Amino acid sequence: MSFSYVEDVLPGHGALPPRAWYAGSSAASLSLNGDWRFRLSPTADAHDESFAAQGYDAGAWSEVAVPGHWVLQGHGAPIYTNHLYPFPVDPPHVPTENPTGDHLRTFDLPDGWPAEGGATLRFDGVESCARVWLNGTDLGEFKGSRLPHEFTVGHLLKPAGNVLAVRVHQWSAGSYLEDQDQWWLPGIFRDVTLLHRPADCALDFFVHASYDHTAGTGALRVDSDADGRITVPELGVDAATGETVTVPVEPWTAETPRLYTGTLDTGGERVPLRVGFRTVELSDGLIKVNGTPVLFKGVNRHEWHPEHGRALDPATMRRDVELMKRHHINAVRTSHYPPHPAFLDLCDEYGLWVIDECDLETHGFVEQGWRDNPVDDDRWTPALLDRAARMVERDKNHPSVVLWSLGNEAGTGRGLTAMAEWIRGRDPERLVHYEGDLDCRDTDVYSRMYADHAEVERIGRGLDGGPARRRALPFILCEYAHAMGNGPGGLADYQRLFETHDRLQGAFVWEWIDHGIADERYGYAYGGDFGEELHDGNFVCDGLVFPDRTPSPGLTEFKKVIEPVRIDVDAPAGTVRITNRYDFRDLSGLAFSWAYEVEGEAVEAGSLVVPPLAPGEHAEVKLPATPADGRGKETQWTVRAIDADDHEVAWGQAVADPATVRTEAFGGRPVRGQGSIALGPAEFDARTGELRRLGGVEVVSPLLDVWRAPTDNDNGASWQGGERLGLLWRQFGLHRMRHRLVGVEPGDDALTVRTRVAPAGRDIGLRAVYRWIADADRLRLTVSVRPEGDWRLPLPRLGIRLGLPGGADAVRWFGGGPGEAYPDTRAASRVGLWHSDVDALQTPYVRPQENGARADVRWAETGGLRIDGEPDFSLTARRWTSEQLDAAEHLTDLTPTGTVWLNLDHAQQGIGSQSCGPGVLPQYRLTPGPAEFSFTFRELTS
Ligand code: GAL
């Protein structure tokens, strides 16, 4: 028995040539998904092939669900590495310890399965190498995990008792081409289907549907290996295959995904077609669709489900697309492999521009300076070409696919050039993308990842130099805004650049979803949780949605930053400027409304007449006369755009009148008692100057606080230059600041407490003076801070922390909300009157870290206290301390302490995206300097 195919660089043998993928044809089909018998072996050669013979008794085997990954079904364990191969780099060899899953299922042909004709067996995805037998006959073997493979099987089928045997090896030569940053998850993870092939069935076919934007016509031609007729009843099209028909049509775009339903009839089979007319071209140095340059507001999407890994059900795929559309995302890069083909059907239907990426990454070779890189070694070129062809042939009939991507992070080499040439020859009607070649030898777009704002601006202005070919190309960031943990920061700043410079045609957030694995021990597991000897921790959790697809604050922020209508309210002028930021749609489908709010509550509202602006146009629209008197309270205008489904598409807001500041004096006088000092409604410790209670509310005294549990972006990635603040902060001891009491000074009208706050081992410190004043029911604290020493680093935060030992549950605040916001992630935060409970204020980042701050808070009520800030503050409330949050590795490590801890921050350091990308922009940096801020506390009387 030979296992040499496992380490063979060639893609395999026995499979049919690739062709277009489709579902729903008139030919019969049988899904072979379901429970399969399963046996796991530690090596490729542990068992001979006798299990594939008819009559083999697999009664003692266990079972796995197909599609699925055996490591997520109790057999072995997943491994997470970013770019390192989890085995020695010794191509094309793989370890002797090569988990091998034998899969077996029997099936009968359903009633009515035609007696005539042949049959094809299709595997839509198997990781990483499979060998297949039907009824004891060896069909062949294949590699290319996220690509389809078909075998001719009609001659082997029996009406009943067919035995399908599939041997799957976790590691193969193909693994060297699949070093994407994700979990290694072996198994038959996509559908297995038996397709009846009638006489005169459809073979391969290529739908060419272009759009002439000057004439308003579409040209349709379907090239088909089997002759037949094409009908599109709505267009009156009835043509032979190979014939071109030109008719007036509505074009397909991601904003207007107009599809025409048609049929390809080859005599023996009718195949449903969904035709979208559109033309993609590179012209004037820009990517244009139907003559118009497009702006990608994209995400990178890996296939992920927290229980099923990359085995995605149709409902989950639809959920992704619906969530994307609802958040204004208009583009997807299928990082880093062709997705399940049904996902592309959804992209056609809902409208998303797709960069379809080939299943190719050899990133681990970077460790040896790319020596032996398969993409620059002719022996591997057949495998690369096979992958390119399987992607292009499978997906070529999707109007949503506008660019082909050769792969990801595979260095440079002749193999890539060969792929690009083959793709251009086969499909000259789309563009080619690849990020890894700075010279853009093989690509139609200059693509980069994680370039910082300044560089992107230079590129936008054409000041980046570089080879002539590249200078003539449009630019995209195929990855940016690393959405790991809290963040990404700086999205709005990028978007401004994209909208300012034509050459910048948008970007794709890294990435869509956190790949956390549902796990009883941890809630969600990440790298290292399965005892992997090499792993990259929680770097696999860097998405805009949590593993269960709950949107993270990052997605809410992204939605706001890319919203297709811009609404700028100019309160003093009483006008709103509305700008249409769509590329293709006018605004006729939207309804606009205004509301006038007094302290967050709408007191009057109405609709606003906005002309049906064309893409790029704007208009000034008058607001009504200021409706009501706010009686000293803050008032705002909020203007919204709503679509026909009642979804909010865009909003804008401006303060109409700020609140009037109360000017009565706080006349209270500190009074010394037994070990305490009374001031207004408050009681202090006379020795320490610490606040003990306010009326009936017990408190753990407010103290200056500068620490936050570092975010993934604070920590930064090890391979990046620049400051890694999370580490620097620890090095300087900001997580263990000590408070030295300098003096407690009760005066005539104030209690003053002087302190110096500093870490052991350093000379840097912060002088903090707390000045307390009061009247009968209000207590006001003014904190003055003065840094001392050579502060070379920004502060994580600057504010006070106090505890409510009696607990707190409900929180009500007037200020920014409803969600989390930090200085560079606050576009989506709008001023309003918000309610939450303490638990709901927490953002459940898979690895715990600073989270949940609400920005621009004017006042808040919780735990029996009302707190007014002057100026506005940032509010955080949690049932554990920052230190506990910092120590936690998983959400399950966080246990409530009984006390609710409030951080009232005058300022916070921005977030940035240095977990893989640029740090915090200078304007969002919290540089130590003299500061003063106040809070007024009052006990709430119910
Ligand atoms: C990129 C890579 C992605 C992912 C990302 C960081 O370099 O293409 O696959 O690793 O960095 O999360």
Describe what is shown at a glance.
It is built from eleven helices and 59 strands. By secondary structure, the protein is mainly beta. It has five domains: 4-197, Galactose-binding domain-like (Jelly Rolls, Sandwich), CATH 2.60.120.260; 205-278, Immunoglobulin-like (Sandwich), CATH 2.60.40.10; 282-560, TIM Barrel, CATH 3.20.20; 564-657, Immunoglobulins (Immunoglobulin-like), CATH 2.60.40.10; 671-939, Beta-galactosidase, Chain A, domain 5 (Distorted Sandwich).
In total, the number of domains comes to: 5
Q: What is the CATH T-level topology of the largest domain?
A: TIM Barrel
Shape: globular
Assembly type of the chains comes to single chain
Mean model confidence by pLDDT: 97
- Looking at CATH, the homologous superfamily of the largest domain is Glycosidases
C-alpha Rg (nearest Å): 31 Å
Q: Work out the helicity level.
A: 10-25%
Q: Identify every distinct bound molecule in the structure, by name, code or SMILES.
A: beta-D-galactopyranose
